[in-house]
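Closing statement on the LBFN2T5F sub-project.
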Amino acid sequence: MQFTKMHGLGNDFIVVHGETSLPADAAERAVKLCNRYFGIGADGLVYILPSERADFKMRIINSDGSEAEQCGNAIRCVAKYVYDNGLIGREAITIETLGAGVQPVQLEVEGGSVRRVRVDMGEPILNGLDVPTTIDANPVIGQTVEIDGRAFKFTAVSMGNPHAVIYVDDAVGFDLATWGPKLETHPLFPRKINVEFAKVNSAEQVDMRVWERGAGPTLACGTGACATLVSSVLNGLTGRSATISLAGGDLYIEWSEDNNRVYMTGPAEAVYTGTV
Ligand SMILES: N[C@@H](CCC[C@H](N)C(=O)O)C(=O)O
């Protein structure tokens, strides 16, 4: 299998192109290949497939073998892959995802190679049962989840995949390893959840660290950054656009008042190609 190792702000992927559909053993391959000691090492395995509705289709399998509906950092990597490898010559393309439909993507090209990508991430889903959570409210803001005697207040947002945003005093130093897995698998979240720990520093800048469903602590999460901005607007903490600073770098997120859609802008990098 030929692959390209890529990342968006350190959220890294094994990117595969050439299959016509998702292999039946994709989950097993993801677990093996994403292993950082016995495999290639990555947060996820990404397939670029043909689409009947868009220029390309993306499927993403987390490192634990579960399939995610959407991935913001992977979609930027897919956009870079298809342009840099000459699969498409346009700078405005569309990519179909499992959970967020067809997403319009704008490429920023320098010297024949994609540097940054702006993705129309679609409209956030705020109805609690649709995120999904077990809470019948719209939106789900300031709800409490209790774990081991500690209470966390969260806002639930789906960007095609589910997120819980929790505001903390220190996002950068937050103990992800203790609280991340317990929140991810809490019964309030029937399909598990990605958890963002956020500290709002100003109306234009937020620090965020993430514990990802199916992948654990990652250096960045594009959908998580979008969920954090939406949550911060709903909680009156930021304006409708802000820089979300992650361990791997910054993403710029906008939530349009005109069309209710969320836009994510950030880099994508190819590291190496290989055969396994
Ligand atoms: N890193 C991603 C999200 C990947 C999927 C996530 N772990 C899930 O299961 O929903 C991003 O950049 O959005």
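The chain has a mean pLDDT of 98. With this model delivered, the sub-project is considered complete and its resources will be redirected to Aim 3.
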